Amino acid sequence: MDKLLIKKIVPKSIFLTFYSIISICLIFSRPIIFVIIKKIYPEIPAENIVRLPWVSSTFALSGMALLLLASISILTCGKTGLIFSIIFADLQILLMIFAIISKKGVILAGFFGSGMTIFFCYILYVFLKKLRISMLNLNITKENLQKIVYTDELTSLASRKKITDTLRAMASPQNLKKPFAIMFIDMDNFKLINDTLGHKIGDLFLQEAAHNISRTIEPGMLLGRMGGDEFLLIIPGVFTDKELETFASKITTGITHPFIFKNEDYSVTCSIGIARYPF
To answer: 7, 52, 121, 139: which is deepest, by most CB within 10 A?
Structure first.
């Protein structure tokens, strides 16, 4: 069995065992107390025993303890805790029915208390279930929002914010100045394509260029669009000038690959600036 699953099941099983033992003790303590008092004070009518102040207080405290345990079981074990809570509440009701049948006396408020326990536990379970769903939806919304903010809408590359946040994190003191290099890529004469073919075709050209650049980069590198026809590539690690020039050459080849539109070839060149950190 999966270790993570065991870690989840074992604590819940231990708690439910503890909860069951305590609940059974509290539930059966009531008739036991009743029988003991009846033997000590046989002259007191059965229906009056439960009206004794300290007896009714003891029963009320035990009822509150059972409700508290039931609430904790639902908070801890969810649906399983709700089932256990309903079982023990039903057990209380059965004991009170037995007391009525055997004419041993019963606190009628106990029926109301047990019923309220079931009702309260169910309401608590439904509330927690809705709360969990809301939290899950909130996390999904947060993840989606982060994805939107960190992804360039046109090219699906990393956005300017993603690049900026990544560079800030990599250059922070906590990273102990781990080395990396960046390449700033600026497409030359892209404005001419925009002016000649229109912005929609220009966007298609940018998407094609982004795809071609993406095919040249290696795992661990981060490519993003800074805006317009400008891209930035983050290259973690230590590289020689020759290695960086090789990367730049591959990028240039990808960008200068002809873009075919209406049987016409269109292409641009690019300018690439390279910097290292630490300097």
So the answer is: 121
